[in-house]
Amino acid sequence: MSSLSPLVAPEAPVGRADEIVQRITEAIHLGLLDDGERLPVEVDLAAQFGVAPMTVREALATLREQELVETRRGRSGGSFVRRPAGPPVDQLAARLSAMSASDLRDLFDEHTAIAGQAARLAAERAAPYVVRRLFAFTDQLDSATTLGDRIRADSRFHIEVAVASQSARLARREANLQAEVAGLIWLPIGPPIDVGAYVEELHAIAAAVAAENPLEARRLAEDHVMGQLPRLTSVHLDLTTQESAG
């Protein structure tokens, strides 16, 4: 592989090694980078992230320590993705508890706007093969048996809707938002998500896109995203309450 997905590569230089680590880590957990996938060489990675090769080298060292990347020597060597069985639940819970209630609301306000507009444009522009991919991701979510598989299927659905909008900026923004929200939404804390109802909502969005109904697609996408906020707000309150009591 010569380059990262354009959804992973930033629009502007990302700066420090830890920011590169975060971006690649999120891409691995979302399934934007496949298990066993070979990363570009350090010089190419540095060019894509707009940093010095030394910064990339430091980031790769951290990823190896976290066992998210494996480096192999030899002619067919390089740095290869090692996707973990599940997401880092403790880290996600800590990130959620560190947010304020207004930060959480703002995050979902932005995601609602991006997802809604992406769904509207997808209904106007999506090619038939892209629509089939949307339904495939809803099927994957419905049949997923692990937390990691659910997060990846859910994220790929939303990103695919944005890709179907044929707006590169919306697709990149949705990918960035999925990196922020997907793991939080599926945190196995508090009342469990009704997976069946969740899948039905995604299926309805895909059906509206397939029917070329932009207003319905937008409404359904906005309702779906904002519908996750009450549960996550409750989980956030429980986590912060536990921290205060501790």
TrEMBL record:
Query: What positions does the domain HTH gntR-type occupy?
Result: 14-84
Protein name as it appears in the record: GntR family transcriptional regulator
Q: Does the keyword DNA repair feature in the UniProt annotation? A: no
Q: What is an example of a Pfam family matching this protein?
A: FCD
Q: Does the keyword DNA-binding apply?
A: yes
The record ties this protein, via InterPro entries, to: GntR_C, TF_FadR/GntR_C, Tscrpt_reg_HTH_GntR, WH-like_DNA-bd_sf, WH_DNA-bd_sf
- Superkingdom, taxonomy of origin: Bacteria
SUPFAM superfamilies given in the database record: GntR ligand-binding domain-like, Winged helix' DNA-binding domain
Q: Which GO terms describe its molecular function?
A: DNA binding; DNA-binding transcription factor activity
List the keywords (alphabetical): DNA-binding, Transcription, Transcription regulation
What organism does this protein naturally occur in? Mycolicibacterium wolinskyi
